[in-house]
Write a sequence for this structure.
């Protein structure tokens, strides 16, 4: 199980790109951290989620 | 009345904030990226608190649609925001070291332009630009503190807006959901609340208080 934004989900083995697609989130408006480390955008396709990972998906919305 | 001396203004700040904190504020260097509703208000808060070095950055000009929430005056319409805000900050805090850049930030120039700052404030309005800056700083400048704002449009309750600590050096303020693209406009009071959260996160980081 992977903890994503505080929620335990069965996303083990999925890449960051696949996780974002499941969540219906555009990769252009997010920052993704796994275990407090930023995932570089260029590595979303190859970075795989592992059992026990803590993932934070920060979605940005417009306005400022 | 003439402008007080540097020593007089410093002493007045010291009396309110204490000598230790004022010393830290005076030597701190903060970069503010985007000088709209968030950035102009954050810059003014930090200048009033006596932050010693501010780097303000925007590529835009003051427009009449900005005046409902951004810290510009009608007579400044058409001026570069970086220039107009520098003028205002110099009136508020005449001894603050202010560097103003009229430039569009991108992945190519961020590492170089923001290298002098201890703390970087993301205060853009477009979601993809917010994400670009945050990703770029976290990827290529891991020793910087970063304070970002997301979700402050409309007139939803004030108390939805919070400060969150995403990683050790990355703070995110806002309600996370109120998107200007959903048709809600930006209202001064709510934008100011988010700007206040961001400015206060900066001051706490400078003070060495890292909890939220």
């Amino acid at each position: 199980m992977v903890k994503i934004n505080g929620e335990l989900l069965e996303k083990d083995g999925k890449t960051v790109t696949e996780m974002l697609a499941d969540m219906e989130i555009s990769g252009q408006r997010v920052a993704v951290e796994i275990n407090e480390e930023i995932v570089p955008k260029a590595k979303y396709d190859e970075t795989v989620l592992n059992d026990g990972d803590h993932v934070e998906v920060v979605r940005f919305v417009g306005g400022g | 009345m003439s402008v007080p001396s540097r020593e007089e203004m410093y002493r007045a700040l010291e009396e309110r904030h204490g000598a230790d904190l004022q010393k830290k504020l005076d030597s701190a260097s903060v970069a503010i990226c985007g000088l709209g509703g968030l950035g102009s208000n954050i810059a003014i808060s930090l200048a009033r608190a006596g932050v010693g070095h501010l780097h303000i950055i925007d590529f835009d000009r003051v427009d009449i649609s900005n005046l409902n929430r951004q810290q510009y005056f009608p007579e400044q319409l058409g001026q570069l925001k970086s220039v107009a805000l520098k003028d205002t900050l110099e009136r508020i805090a005449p001894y603050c070291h202010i560097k103003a850049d009229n430039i569009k930030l991108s992945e190519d120039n961020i590492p170089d332009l923001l290298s002098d700052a201890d703390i970087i404030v993301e205060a853009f309005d477009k979601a993809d630009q917010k994400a670009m800056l945050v990703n770029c700083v976290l990827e290529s400048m891991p020793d910087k503190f970063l304070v970002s704002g997301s979700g402050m449009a409309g007139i939803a309750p004030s108390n939805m807006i919070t400060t969150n600590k995403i990683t050790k050096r990355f703070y995110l303020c806002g309600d996370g959901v109120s998107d200007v693209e959903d048709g809600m406009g930006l209202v001064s009071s709510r934008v100011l609340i988010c700007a206040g959260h961001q400015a206060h996160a900066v001051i706490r980081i400078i003070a060495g208080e890292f909890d939220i």
Notes: The CA atoms of residues 3 and 54 of chain A lie 5 Å apart. Chain A has one helix and five strands.
